[in-house]
Write a structure and sequence with these properties.
CATH architecture: 3-Layer(aba) Sandwich
Order of helices and strands: HHEEEEHEHEHEHEHH
Helix content: 25-40%
């Protein structure tokens, strides 16, 4: 057994470390990478515009450690409106089955919206970390948000049109935005207006909507930053 394992190629080893798909349909894919079962991070994927429209599992390089990691990809880029209940049902079932004691949600842009939203619905979620999140993309809720209108037009049912009503005082929210992106500042203002006691907003100088990438370019470790917010 040991000799056989030692002969595995790098590509075979990488395949073994790939997250296992727990659930997938036309709307959403939920993958899982096991840790010790006690702590978990739920990472919500963005729309993937920076990668030519390819959605990749977010923060994989920044989430090594002992935590269970779940990756949630909204295939329809509906800001989780078209897959809301599936995500709640599947992830809640897995967390409960594994006896997970503490959950953190995490995401960037659309994924940041997901991190803020699902923190209220997943068992034992204590913390949500959102980089450059939208509070909504629905035009009658946020008329100032013009960047994602084509995606908003494709949403079939607005199950969760606005994240603000879903924020809870029992959750710690860490929102990181770029100081050079005024639309993201307006979303942050909407979140702050909720007066949620555990909501913190951090504005990063010389950064725009791609604030996570800007932090990395400034030599800041996202792994350490995220770990400090858990």
């Amino acid at each position: 057994m040991y000799l056989k394992a030692a002969c595995l190629s790098e590509s075979q080893m990488d395949l073994m470390l790939q997250p296992q798909v727990l659930y997938s349909d036309d709307n959403v894919k939920i993958s899982f990478q096991p840790g010790n079962g006690t702590l978990a991070v739920i990472s919500f994927t963005g729309i993937g515009l920076q990668l030519g429209g390819i959605q990749q599992e977010e923060f994989r390089a920044s989430l090594n450690g002992d935590r269970d990691i779940y990756y949630v990809t909204d295939h329809r880029r509906s800001w989780f409106n078209d897959c809301f209940q599936s995500v709640v049902d599947v992830v809640s079932r897995e967390i409960t089955a594994r006896g997970t004691k503490e959950v953190t949600t995490l995401g960037n842009s659309m994924g940041g919206f997901g991190a803020l939203l699902f923190a209220a619905y997943l068992p034992n979620c204590r913390t949500a970390i959102a980089f450059a999140p939208q509070s909504s993309i629905k035009s009658d809720v946020v008329p100032f948000e013009s960047r994602y209108r084509k995606f908003a037009a494709q949403v079939r049912t607005w199950n969760v049109p606005d994240v603000v009503p879903h924020l809870l005082d029992s959750v710690r929210y860490h929102v990181v935005i770029g100081a050079d992106e005024p639309i993201d500042e307006k979303h942050a203002d909407r979140l702050l207006a909720s007066n949620i006691s555990g909501l913190n907003v951090y504005s990063v100088k010389n950064a725009d909507h791609n604030v996570a990438r800007s932090l990395k370019s400034q030599g800041i470790s996202l792994h350490k930053l995220i770990a400090a917010m858990y």
